[in-house]
C-alpha cells in the first residue's frame, strides 16, 4: 500500500542524484563515437538533415521524396539539434538519451511519492538492469522517445488518482498522450490505464476522492486534441492548398495506412501472437518478470490498488501489440518503466530473498557465458562471426573476453552477496565498454555504405552524375556527391525503367544499385563491382551496361538530393 510518511528531502536528493548520475554516465557514454546504424537510425537522421536543408519541417522527406511512415516529432528533435550544432554525428543519440533519463526520473519520483525513497531506488535499479531500457536509450530509434511521453502521461495519471488529486497533472497526461501520438501513433496507450481505475471506482474496491473522479475528467481529451491540432491542422492546410499530389498522398498515408491499417493488417515484421512472451520478454526484461511466479507478489497486488492498476495496464499494453500481426521487440518498451515501478515496490516489501539472489547469480553466469562464447567464436574466426564483422576478429574477441571476465570476476568476488547494486554495477561497466571501445570497433562494420559511396564517387569522376536504385537511407546519408533516385516507394522494376530513361538523356550518368537478377534494362555482365554491404553486393552501371531498349515507366519519377552539407 501507499506510504503516508513524508519524504525525507535529503534522502530523496542524495539517492536520486547518485542513481541519476551513474545512469547518465552509462546512457550518455559513446555519444559522438559512432555513426547511425541500420536499420532505422540512418532513415531518421537523413530525414532530419533534409528538414534543416530544405526548410520543410511539416512533411518529412527521404532523398527529396516524402517519408510517410511516421509523424515528425522525433525527426524534429534530431533536426533541432542538427540545426543548433551543425553536427549529426555528435547529436543524433541525444534525444533518446535525454528521453530515457526523463523516464528514469518519472519512475523515481512517482515511486517516492506513492511509497518511499527506498522503493524509488529499487524501481530505478529494476529499470536500469532490464536490457531493453538501456539498449533503446543508446539508439536513435523512435520508441525510446515515445516511451518517455507515455511514461510522463502515466506519471501524471498515477499522481492524480493515487497520490494527490491534481487536475493540472491529469490534463498534462492527456497532452503528453497527444505528443506521443504525433511521435508515433501509439501514444494514446495510457488511456488503457483508465480501465483498471474505473473498475476500482465502480466496484468500490478503492475509494477515490471527488476531486479525482468527476465530470472534469472529460476535459482531458481536449488537451490531447489541442496538441494533435498543433501539427495536424497546419499539415492538413498545407496539403490541401499545395496542389502537390505528394503532400496529399502523405496526408492520406499518415492518417490511415500508417495507423489503423498498419495495426490491423501489417505488411512487415509478421510474428505470432506469442512473440513478445517467448522471444522478447524472457531476454530483454530479465529479471523483472521473475516475481510474477511468486505468491508473495500476487498478495501485494491484491492489497495494493496501485500495483493492481499498473500491472493490468502493462498486461493490456502487451496484449494490444500481441493482437496486431506486425510485431517488433521494441514496441512494448513503454511498459517497462511501469513494470519496474511495481517490481521495485514489491522488492522493497519482501527484501532480497534467497531465490531472487539465485536469479541474479543465474544472470551473472548467463551474461558471462554469452560474452565468453562470443569471444571464442571471434578467436576461432567462426563463419557466424566473420560474415558479420569480417576477418579481423581479434579485437572483438578481446573486447568480449574482457566483458566475460568482468562478469565472472564480480560474481566470484561477491559470491553470495550479489544484490541489485552489484548486478547493476556489472551492467554499467559492460555498457560503458560497449559504448566506447565497442562503438569504435563496430562502427566501420555497421556503416559499410560510407565506403561504397566514396568508391562510387571516385569512379564517376568530378563530372559524373550518380543515380541510385534499390538503396537504403544510409547511402543517401553518407553520399559525398549529389544523388538522383527514382522513388524509394516504387517497385524495383519501375526504378530500373526510370533509371534507364534518365541515363539515356545525357552522357556521363551512372546508376549504383544492389546486384539482383531481376534488374531490367541493364546488362549485369558489364557492371563494375563495388563491395558487399548489408547482405547485398553493390554494383555501378554506366552507359555501356544499358540495353538497347527498355520498357517505358508507368510514371516518370525523379527525386534529387542536392549536396548542401556533407554528413558529419
TrEMBL record:
BP terms from Gene Ontology: lipopolysaccharide biosynthetic process; response to iron(III) ion
GO cellular component, one term: plasma membrane
InterPro entries hit by this protein: LipidA_mod_glycosyltrf_83, RgtA/B/C-like
Domain Glycosyltransferase RgtA/B/C/D-like per the UniProt entry, residue ranges: 69-231
Compartments in which it is found: Cell membrane
Membrane topology: Multi-pass membrane protein
Membrane-traversing stretches: 15-33, 92-112, 142-162, 174-203, 215-239, 273-293, 305-323, 329-347, 359-382, 394-413, 420-442
Keyword list, A-Z: Cell membrane, Glycosyltransferase, Membrane, Transferase, Transmembrane, Transmembrane helix
GO MF: pentosyltransferase activity
Keyword Transferase among record annotations: yes
Domain of life (superkingdom): Bacteria
Protein name: 4-amino-4-deoxy-L-arabinose transferase
Organism the protein comes from: Marinomonas polaris DSM 16579
Amino acid at each position: 500500500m501507499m506510504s503516508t510518511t513524508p519524504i525525507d528531502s535529503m534522502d530523496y536528493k542524495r539517492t536520486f542524484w547518485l542513481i541519476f548520475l551513474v545512469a547518465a554516465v552509462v546512457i550518455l557514454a559513446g555519444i559522438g563515437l559512432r555513426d547511425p546504424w541500420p536499420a532505422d537510425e540512418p532513415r531518421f537522421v537523413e530525414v532530419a538533415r533534409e528538414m534543416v536543408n530544405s526548410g520543410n519541417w511539416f512533411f518529412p522527406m527521404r532523398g527529396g521524396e516524402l517519408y510517410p511512415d511516421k509523424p515528425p516529432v522525433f525527426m524534429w528533435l534530431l533536426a533541432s539539434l542538427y540545426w543548433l550544432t551543425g553536427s549529426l554525428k555528435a547529436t543524433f543519440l541525444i534525444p533518446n538519451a535525454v528521453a530515457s533519463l526523463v523516464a528514469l526520473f518519472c519512475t523515481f519520483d512517482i515511486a517516492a511519492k506513492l511509497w518511499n525513497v527506498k522503493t524509488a531506488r529499487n524501481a530505478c535499479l529494476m529499470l536500469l538492469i532490464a536490457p531493453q531500457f538501456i539498449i533503446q536509450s543508446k539508439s536513435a530509434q523512435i520508441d525510446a522517445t515515445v516511451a518517455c511521453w507515455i511514461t510522463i502521461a502515466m506519471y501524471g495519471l498515477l499522481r492524480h488518482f493515487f497520490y494527490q488529486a491534481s487536475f493540472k497533472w491529469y490534463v498534462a497526461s492527456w497532452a503528453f498522450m497527444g505528443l506521443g501520438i504525433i511521435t508515433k501513433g501509439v501514444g494514446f496507450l495510457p488511456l488503457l490505464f483508465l480501465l483498471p481505475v474505473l473498475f476500482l471506482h465502480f466496484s468500490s474496491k478503492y475509494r477515490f476522492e471527488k476531486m479525482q473522479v468527476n465530470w472534469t475528467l472529460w476535459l482531458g481529451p481536449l488537451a490531447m486534441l489541442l496538441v494533435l491540432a498543433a501539427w495536424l491542422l497546419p499539415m492538413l492546410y498545407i496539403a490541401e492548398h499545395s496542389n502537390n499530389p505528394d503532400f496529399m498522398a502523405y496526408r492520406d498515408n499518415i492518417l490511415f495506412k500508417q495507423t489503423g491499417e498498419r495495426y490491423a493488417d501489417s505488411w512487415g515484421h509478421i510474428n505470432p501472437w506469442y512473440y513478445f512472451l517467448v522471444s522478447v520478454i524472457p531476454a530483454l526484461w530479465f529479471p523483472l518478470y521473475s516475481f510474477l511466479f511468486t505468491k508473495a507478489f500476487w498478495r501485494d497486488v491484491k492489497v495494493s490498488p496501485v500495483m493492481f492498476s499498473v500491472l493490468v495496464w502493462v498486461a493490456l499494453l502487451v496484449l494490444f501489440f500481441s493482437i496486431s500481426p506486425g510485431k517488433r521487440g521494441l514496441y512494448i518498451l513503454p511498459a517497462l518503466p511501469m513494470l519496474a515501478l511495481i517490481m521495485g515496490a514489491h522488492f522493497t516489501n519482501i527484501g532480497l530473498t534467497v531465490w531472487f539472489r539465485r536469479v541474479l547469480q543465474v544472470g551473472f553466469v548467463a551474461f558471462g557465458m554469452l560474452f565468453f562464447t562470443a569471444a571464442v567464436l571471434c578467436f576461432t574466426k567462426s563463419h557466424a562471426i566473420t560474415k558479420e564483422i569480417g576477418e579481423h576478429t581479434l579485437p572483438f574477441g578481446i573486447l568480449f573476453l574482457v566483458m566475460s571476465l568482468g562478469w565472472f570476476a564480480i560474481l566470484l568476488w561477491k559470491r553470495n552477496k550479489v544484490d541489485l547494486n552489484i548486478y547493476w554495477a556489472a551492467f554499467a561497466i559492460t555498457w560503458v565498454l560497449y559504448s566506447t571501445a565497442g562503438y569504435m570497433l563496430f562502427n566501420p562494420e555497421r556503416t559499410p555504405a560510407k565506403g561504397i559511396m566514396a568508391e562510387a564517387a571516385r569512379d564517376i569522376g568530378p563530372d559524373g552524375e550518380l543515380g541510385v536504385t534499390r538503396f537504403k537511407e544510409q547511402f543517401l546519408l553518407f553520399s559525398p556527391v549529389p544523388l538522383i533516385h527514382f522513388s524509394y516507394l516504387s517497385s524495383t522494376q519501375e526504378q530500373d525503367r526510370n533509371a534507364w530513361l534518365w541515363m539515356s538523356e545525357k552522357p556521363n550518368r551512372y546508376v549504383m544499385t544492389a546486384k539482383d537478377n531481376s534488374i531490367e534494362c541493364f546488362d549485369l555482365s558489364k557492371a563494375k563491382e563495388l563491395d558487399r554491404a548489408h547482405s547485398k553486393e553493390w554494383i555501378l552501371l554506366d552507359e555501356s551496361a544499358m540495353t538497347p531498349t527498355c520498357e517505358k515507366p508507368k510514371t516518370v519519377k525523379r527525386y534529387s538530393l542536392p549536396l548542401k552539407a556533407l554528413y558529419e
